[in-house]
């Protein structure tokens, strides 16, 4: 059991998350997702969670495991072309995880996502949360544009608004 991690999670709050991601930042992130999605046929969701609940925290749930749960919970897997991507930030751990649907993941793999995550985390260490998220969205969008180019009008299958848990 990692006591430091438990203390971080128990002391993280929704209020702190809202200070880091105020309404204006969330609106900018939403606009960026909408803008980037016009360049490809994929779907991007951004989710930030202040901290894990006590039970999963004490069970040692990782940010990756939680991201996979959130991916399923938000039905990001339920896109016509299996091209949904979740960018998940567990704020208490300052850990970014990207979970891609099987169609996207087969084309890009873990290394691509790890690179994007590390770049975002570097921005977060400098206190640049909004800029880090926007850069990550643009990076993911660039990869999606390569493998899922826009071929005309498309339905927006998933909401663009960030989710705060």
From TrEMBL:
<dbReference type="Pfam" id="PF04536">
    <property type="entry name" value="TPM_phosphatase"/>
</dbReference>
<protein>
    <recommendedName>
        <fullName>TPM domain-containing protein</fullName>
    </recommendedName>
</protein>
<feature type="domain" description="TPM">
    <location>
        <begin position="20"/>
        <end position="141"/>
    </location>
</feature>
<dbReference type="InterPro" id="IPR007621">
    <property type="entry name" value="TPM_dom"/>
</dbReference>
